[in-house]
Amino acid sequence: MVKKGEVTGVETDRGQIKCQYFVNCAGQWAYELGLANEEPISIPLHACEHFYLLTRPWETPLHSSTPTVVDADGRIYIRNWQGGILSGGFEKTPKPIFTEGKNQLEIQNLQEDWDHFEPLLSSLLRRMPELETLEIVKLVNCPETFTPDMRCIMGESPLVQGYFVLAGMNSAGLSFGGGAGKYLAEWMVHGYPSESVWELDLKRFGALQSSRTFLRHRVMEVMPLLYDLKVPRWDFQTGRQLRTSPLYDRLDAQGARWMEKHGFERPKYFVPPDKDLLALEQSKTFYKPDWFDIVEAEVKCCKEAVCVIDMSSFTKFEITSTGDEALEILQYLFSNDLDVPVGHIVHTGMLNEGGGYENDCSIARLSKRSFFMISPTDQQVHCWAWLKKHMPQDSNLLLEDVTWKYTALNLIGPRAVDVLSELSYAPMTPDHFPSLFCKEMSVGYANGIRVMSMTHTGEPGFMLYIPIEYALHVYNEVMSVGQKYGIRNAGYYALRSLRIEKFFAFWGQDLNTLTTPLECGRESRVKLDKGMDFIGRDALLHQRQNGVYKRLTMFILDDHDTDLDLWPWWGEPIYRNGQYVGKTTSSAYSYTLERHVCLGFVHNFSEDTGEEQVVTADFINRGEYEIDIAGHRFQAKAKLYPVASLFTHKRRKDDVELSDLQGK
User: Fold this and answer.
1) Phi, psi of 238 (to 5 degrees)
2) Is 221 exposed, middle or buried (0-12, 13-18, 19+ CB in 10 A)?
3) Least confident of 284-288, 299-303, 538-542
4) Looking at residues 41-48, what average pLDDT do you find?
5) For 277, how many CA atoms within 13 A lie in the half-sphere containing its CB?
6) 162-196 burial: b if 16+ Cβ within 10 Å, else e
7) Which of 169, 321, 351, 432 could connect to 326 by a Cys-Cys bridge, CB 3.0–4.6 Å?
8) Is-contact 92 224, C-beta < 8 A?
9) Average pLDDT over residues 180-200
């Protein structure tokens, strides 16, 4: 039962039970239970048949402490069961069940299927030949649920406060149960868990991932992947072309290779006509990838001419009011000062009570009572839920998701100003169109284009937010006029390289709910004295007084051979003076520095107690650093600010990134 968007009780066959919280931990039935509410809750998971073999004990029974053995090549696991063996696996051809939602069968009613289990049995006999001497008790066939991204689902519903979910364990419930239960309990009691669990949060999904057809096809891919080696930047093959910009077919015909984010297709890079397309598609490596030269050419074009990147996947909201309510609520929800003149753009964080980032975004003031908010792609559900939760219910505020209304084109490079000047017949130089400014104007024949003087990369250029009916026209005009200036398409891999070499962090990987602006060098985006309180202000005041216990740092690898050595892909350990101090959060090759650049948080652990201590700039600067890549340590220079030699042009000093750019 739900009242005013909050859980009030549960309706059962034995009457009503009043409660403040409800936890949907119904396993394979969680999907249907979510739909049974007055306000349906989308919980994307799907069941597959899961087989495991049980045997009688050995002559000398296995001890209860016998470890579980995982044979990834054979796709099987083996563990003790009452002195005998329990062995199952994750076959290449799984059998999804209950797609129609009729999953009311008892486990024992599912049928044995020895033909289907045979490949796993063969792997088991190769690994344990003596298994042939054991008596088989039975082949168990039971339903097991899987999620679209191989990670479990937990957290509070974006639609109903007090409705929590813990489901979709992907056959790892025994392993994850204790930790997942702990974090969910903290979430319910304190409003947030003690660790960042964004990758498990229910709000990473939207209703678009709850199609039964999508889930059936996706789990058939997910289940085999549990034991597959996943190379960096791999992509799911199922559930594709679900969300596309109006330019998808045009870009695809020009050689775009695609990645998927929150169901949205985004270009990774563009294959030139003279490249072997098939070889690039099959390239899977932890070393230098085959797309290296392609991305290098795109980056060079961004720095010397002009490139176009389709960034339509960004989440876009409009917040309006009849009075001053829009400004007042945004001032409370965001750390920066949004009381700026009409047309100005503000980069700001949406913080929680601990001062951590719930979102990192850009907001343009369209009018005195209207704001345009640009957020990371996978923030569409989470950010909406956070805003709705904190907005007054009975007010003149209007929050509208306009993501689908606008195609976003990023024009990057020194010649972007020439392209737009020709198309708009208006001066676009910094004197006439200052940095971090937004205004509606004509581009080609299309009117009402929101043009913003920022690129999210530190390079000069503009963002164009185009009503979708004009998208193809504007793109064609930009590409036509841009030919004389050397224009070309570019993708998110080039964007990643540009933003990391400029020390631009992005939300969801470098920044999370436990990262504060003071820990990542974004003090300028916090206005503690803007004349009113905002969420997280007290925590930031306390942190400013007492110091930070981690600091986002930029590392430039010194003795790393790009052609021969394994690449850093993120998650590598960081060592200071031989001692572990943290791990990298993102990385990319800088074509400007001709070096790999990593971002990561440095901690100061006490040598005596292991407790965290304050991290100062002096502590960062006085250390000798190494990055461990697959067991080999490479020397690295630590920087708290971007390297000055990167700036080969006059940079617009305030053109700093929106921290979406989340192509992982």
Assistant:
1) -95, 160
2) middle
3) 284-288
4) 94
5) 11
6) bbbbbbbbbbebeebeeebeebbeebeeeebbeeb
7) 321
8) yes
9) 94
